[in-house]
Sequence to fold (462 residues):
Amino acid sequence: MELTRLSLLESALKSRYPQLAVFIVMLVGYIFAIIAGLIGTPVGSSNFSIVFVWIAWWAILILIAVPFFGRGWCAVCPIPLPGEWLQRGAVLGPHGNRWSSRRRGTDADSVLLDRRRRTETKWLNLRVPKMFRNIWLQNISFLLLALFSSVLLTTPNITGIVLAAMLFAAVGLSMVFERRAFCRYLCPVGGFIGLYSQTAPIELRIKDKQVCVKCKDKPCYHGSSAGYGCPWDVFPGGLTRNTYCGLCMECIRTCPHDNIAVNLRPFSADLAKPSARMDEAFKAFIMLGSAMIYAGVLLGPWGMFKDAAYNVGTTAWFIYAIIFLTIIFGVLPGLFTLGLLQTKGAASLKQRFASLSTALIPLGLMFWVAFSLSFVLTNASYILAALSDPLGLGWNLFDTANIAWQPMLTSVLAPAQTLALVVGLIWSARTAQKSANEAGVSPFTIIIYCLIATSVMLWLLL
Ligand code: SF4
Ligand code: SF4
Ligand code: SF4
Fold:
């Protein structure tokens, strides 16, 4: 169902003003979170940066935005904005044709493009080297945050520093590389949002392929006087998955043939065509394994593991880090590969590994939903208090500063988590069936793998 048929929605998406209004609110909130982290109270549960980033934002992201809107968060995320504004030399106006740097065609073309680049932007505007055009850097940046997460989630000034570092990294990369290099190749959050956005019931796609074939200048990619070329370095005419479309809506503005639509679709439609990329396959293992490890370490009864995770830099922490990485890069993919060895098909083991790991995407998402329900419901009561006293300075702006901590909805937590895990298992089994059909193998061992992982997660959470 095409949502952009609703003329009000289409006009809102084509206009830059509603988006700019949301961006400004988000950017102000983000900068305030940095300031609160750096100068506010060191007590995490009373500091805006911890409470609004790791409880409120995380809850909205993982329980609503990603499952239902895919990269919906990226559509309003403030992190790439300052860099993008500097790169474009404008906050609002469409100046088009600034990003025509794809190095193709004749030397004369290159000269022309180089000249155009020099005259139209004062920044370097380089293309990201080919070896980095994948999500391995995003996998590494996520793992770095994951290994330090116990400290990050509880220490306001560390959260403030990390938020500021992401903003500066995005600005720095915008000065050197074309388009949104930070979002596309480095952002630790964007990597998993992209992976799980494939399950969302929303997509941006072209309406008619033939129109794109006949379209000469491809302004959706190169930009035009109506707007900028795709900031995510995606050719919208070739989109088949949500993974790398940041829903920025530029192509809706630049397409002169009105050939871009935002559609409502069945959940996980993208997973019918499994990816064959190893970086994405390992992202699925990283996310699945991290959810399980967090459930055990942060929510489990084992004080020894918790101590090791919190005491960054100690021998115990190094052992924790080694176990963490061994589970993610050794145990989980190793057992998965053992299961695959029992299947036979025309595709190589590597191809089967990459395509069948698609089945872990819904499972991982629901593991994160189940895990997040636990700490979000336990800590949500901090939100109102932090709203009234965001820096922990004794303010009481909305008369809610003294609301006592109280876990919410405790009676429904365990059933909700169980339901999430069961839904994840069924969803993954169906995805495994489709992926296995594509690869011409039996899905049996993959479904058993998902069943065992779900049982372990259930045991860790309940
Ligand atoms: S990839 Fe990261 S920085 Fe970029 S828009 Fe998405 S969350 Fe924000
Ligand atoms: S500008 Fe529109 S018609 Fe042309 S290639 Fe892009 S999406 Fe297709
Ligand atoms: S495909 Fe369109 S909406 Fe998606 S990132 Fe590119 S320009 Fe933005």
